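S1.2 Input.
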Amino acid sequence: MENNKLFSEFPPVSTEKWEEVINKDLKGADYDKKLVWKTIEGFSVKPYYRAEDLENLTYLNTNPNEFPYVRGKQSKSNVWDVRQDIAVKDPAEANRIAVDAVKRGATALGLCVREITTAQQMETLLNGIDLTKVRINFTCSKSYLPTLKLLVEVAKKQNVDTKEIAGSIDFDIFNYALKHGEFYQSEDANYAEAIEVINYIDAELPKFRALTVNGRMFHNAGSSIVQELGYTLAAANDLMANLTERGCKVESVASNMQFAFAIGSNYFMEMAKIRAARLLWSKIVEQYEPKCSCAYNVYIHATSSTWNKSVYDAYVNMLRTTTETMSAAIAGADSISVAPFDVAYKQADDFSMRIARNQQILLKEESYLDKIVDPAAGSYYIENLTNSIAQYAWDNFLAVEEKGGFAKAIRAGYVQDEIEKMAQQRDQDIATRKTVILGTNQYPNLAENMSDKIQPKECCCCGNKGTEVKVLKAYRGAQAFEELRLATEKAAEKPKVFLLTYGNLAMRKARSGFATNFFGVAGYEIIDNVGFATAAEGVEAALAAKADIVVMCSSDDEYAEIVNDVCNGLKGKVKSIVLAGYPKEQVEAYKAAGVDEFIHVKTNVLESLTSFQKMMNLL
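S1.3 Output.
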């Protein structure tokens, strides 16, 4: 057979030649600063990759459904379950939502069952749902075994073969401890209960999974991708080690395990995270010497990140969840829950839940993402991301192991402290707009008001906080900016920002646009202008508009023509005089003339706006 290459008439180009051309185009600029991405995870991403970058990746020689399962456990399709999560206390209302979800395309349900304590309540919850066709996942429960027994009782009453019921129960002692500050009984009692649950499931519900390791709790507290993965693996290994030491078979523990990851907007990195998770977990399980390959097939459930969702410009959340769902699907997640776009500020309704389901259905039925197994395989870029994430996540895993395992690490506060450090870094990136949350810290909708739309949300997962374990707090990255804007909305009158534009058309428009975005983030009223011929004309218009803040918008050179006159005309008559830009050589002189603040691309927007809010008595 001839090995004819496409376009063989073109000679191959070496990496050295590519680098030579790139450096020529850079014209002396620093290659690393301009082209190499320094990720928050700690590793660098090159501007391009070639076949030679894959030479040392040994797992590339495997097929789907082969060890170490980087390419997933399916070999003929990429089908995943469309899961609808329902956190409603009333069984009848939860059932109404569930039946409608299944009718409209859901193939799995996540049901909060904290209030389900009787067979009648369970029957009401599951009424009209074919338990052999819809995957049932119980969440929010502390009564794991009683919940499973109620399921079996109802199933047998309906003549359903319980061995055909697939699903899971959210047994995660670490998630509970990190959320509530204590193990809900004791660590030993939790392991004893886990063994009971596993034994019961193996006997009555063999298609169920007993143990969930919630990596999403790390993600939604602000962790990096490698922290989320590394700590998830550490928690899973702790469960594996403790349960096998107590007599459980490796195969039984491993086949009862599922990982629940949150998926953020970092499109390719999130794909790589799921692929790396299977790689590393296979390596960990291998050390326990299982007798059945079924031990390697961890079930991966992916949920939309809550950390990156916003109250303002909430429809952008649909775009975020679409890319997140694509990442999870392409990476081969077994089931996916898409968060409704409005859950950041209210209980999801039928419309938002329907849109969330339809995002997955469209990706299946119209984009055919369920047809191709591991479409990312062989991509120089994604394979290298997979390898980098695996290496750095493994370092996080080993750091926890050095602390004596996951339980000891969270008792010492190590995991929580590391995530808090990362969260602070991510918060700083949002505050300085290095990380953009569209509609919140950049490009706000100035006409939008949300204070009257925010509703208290029903929660079935709340509880008291203990002191045994430092609590890991989930939050949203947009919250700090949202609080500023909500404070403005609640004021009797919004502060007025007057843009005093002057001089060069391009510069004044650019800087007025910047100032509009800057103060619009806090919800201030922006008064833009087409440009003034003189400083005096601008001052007169600002005073007539009864402005609270006046922002000069011009070029650095032309500021010298207006600063003194503007400051002399406005000092003491407005609350703040601001200059858009940072003419470094003139800053001190302009401060002396009366400029109170300089806003520019390096400004910490959150800190600056907080100061303005306090000046306006809004905080």
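S1.4 Remarks. DSSP finds 22 helices and 15 strands in the chain.
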